[in-house]
Model the fold of this input.
Amino acid sequence: AAIGELAAGVAHEINNPLFAILGLTEFLLKEAEPGSKPHQRLELIQQTGLEIKEIVRALLDFARENAEERHVVALEDVIRSTVDLVRRTNAHKGVELVDTYDDSLALVSASPNQLKQIALNLIANARQAMPNGGTVNVDVRRDGDWAVASVSDMPRSPVQAFAHPEFATIARTSLAESASRARSHTTGAATTRFVV
Done:
């Protein structure tokens, strides 16, 4: 509830001046000659403002969800919206974020908010494990009766992975159950992979 109130307050503080900027930009676009430099700059301002508006909307959607509410959801939809949020907020800066889905519509009984938080944390951890950049791969697929979401990182320099050999791995578990079963192990691999 506190996060929702905080997000609503932040959204209000951002949206008020944003709507004024977008309104004024739309007015100025009508006056500017199409194709001119001022018109192109105003279009850039408008596009950026609309992107900010979408980030705020996604933040509010994320904060509104009840963390304890469990229902049947498509795992792909939850992970895709989380990856989109990461892309829009530039939280993947310095790394390439690659997401793949097998379009199997794997349904799980879970809290969408908790799934999003797990995915956000795993993506953030993967990014932080690669201070010199690299690739974060997010993969969602069906594996028999399992719905599998995995996040793996591949540093640009494999030496990075050897410098920090301890990684936490979420144990493979049904997403209908709690995703809190975790274990830690040491690996010498250049790639770290988390599977939920």
Summary: Residues 2-31 form the longest helix (30 residues). Confidence is low (pLDDT under 50) at residues 159-192. Strands lie at 71-74, 95-101, 107-110, 134-143, 146-155, 166-170, 182-186, 192-195.
